[in-house]
Amino acid sequence: MYYLKNNTSSQDHNIVVYLNDIGKDDIIKEIYKGLYAKQKFLSPKFFYDKKGTELFEMITQLEEYYPNRTEKSILLNIVEKLNFKFENSTIIELGSGDSSKISMLFKQIPKELLSSINYFATDISISAIEKSIANLSQEFPLKNIKGIAIDFFYQLNKIPQKENRLFCFFGSTIGNFKFLELAKFMLVLGNEMNKGDSLLLGLDMMKEISIIEKAYNDKKGVTAEFNKNILNVVNKLIKSDFNTHDFFHYAFFNKQKSRIEMHLKALKDLEINSELK
Fold first, then answer.
1. Domain hosting residue 43, numbered range
2. 205: DSSP letter
3. Among 60, 134, 157, 181, which is disulfide-ready with 177 (CB 3.0 to 4.6 Å)?
């Protein structure tokens, strides 16, 4: 997880890490703000330490998790539907933990054009970027394949300024934002994009609530483990003593806000200690 000393750098010279630019004190304040709120919350970005990244990869392969399969079926023939000139372009993937989707796009681009394309993988997880660019480097003869480790809610300005850029934001990741956060993010992204840039955005559509809820309550319990793992990340960051066994995973579709929500509900009254408080 970023902000931990062992995960704020990469041995891969093709990856630039900007996570250190965000002060650890600010991150700690962000966590405490959520924990002291009446309706407690933690940012989804804290899911993605190494274990969390691995668990999410497992989730995308689950029978119940339809978003991954559905999006891939759309991406199968996406290039011919895009009004975008790929020659001498720059493709920027926001949240590049899973290289399989961007690979589907690259496979549809003629090889003679691939060699003119710059690709930047951005993610909050350095291990995810390392894996992604390693896979892509072996498969596609792109002009450049680089990684940028950023918190793209705060650090979109670290993305290189190039002409003719295609921003790819897959996986319905945008659904992780609260309404005001989403409005702010889209405003910042719009300001960072130049005239002629394009955005390819993945969004889920409304469907039967039972289908949505099953996707986040899988029979194998992988999503539950993924949800609980956020407490392990928080323990490392604020030196707290959350025990994942004291909570159960609770995911449901909030009809009023038209969104899926994941909660952790305590099994008993708890007092949590932190060495930083």
1. 1-221
2. -
3. 181
**pLDDT of amino acid 152:** 85
What CATH number does the domain containing 121 carry?
A: 3.40.50.150
Residue range 141-164, pLDDT digits in tens = 999 999 999 998 889 999 999 999
User: Residue 87 domain-assigned?
Assistant: yes
What sign results for the dihedral spanned by CA atoms 261, 209, 94, 121? positive
Assigned domain for 11 exists = yes
- For 226, the 3-state DSSP assignment is helix
The pLDDT assigned to 208 comes to 97
Q: Between these two residues, 128 and 234, which has the higher pLDDT value? A: 234
Is residue 204 situated within a structural domain?
yes
Strand order through the sheet with 165-169: 15-17, 144-149, 118-123, 90-94, 165-169, 198-201
pLDDT of residue 1: 47
Q: Which residue did the predictor score with more confidence, 13 or 203?
A: 203
Count other Cβ atoms within 10 Å, centred on residue 119. Answer: 26
Take residue 10 and report the two structure tokens written for it: 């990469």
Per the structure, the count of domains in the chain is 1
